[in-house]
Task: structure prediction
Amino acid sequence: MLLVSNGLITKNNREHQLLNIIINEDIKNKLFGIGYSLDFNGEIFIDIVRQMFFYIHSYIKKQLKEVDYCYAYPSEGIIKIFFLIDNKQFDFDLADILFLFEKELKKKYNFNCIEIYQISLSSKENFIDEDNSVKIYGN
Result:
């Protein structure tokens, strides 16, 4: 099994073994479809996406203390990434940060099939289907 460490794919990294981002078979199939539409080999695309998920996890942990959870949901040719905060009001400062972060991810991973959303933790059930999404960050 390949794991990702600091943007590099490695075989043994304790931190990422403990992190354990799980991508189930249904999500893998959706990611294969997105990868193929972008002319990527399916397995290579999943490795790149997993690498991106680890990068997002690290970014949240280091720089976005206001984020409680983060989920990714592949849908209709895009990967939607939801940042959940425990605040009923929209955080405009966080929105600015996430806008720039989305641009960074698109440039770093060289594909434009990413959309980032900020949602309230109280609205989680309206946006997140935990069985069909990948938990990137949170307890």
Residues 21 and 81 are 14 Å apart (CA to CA).
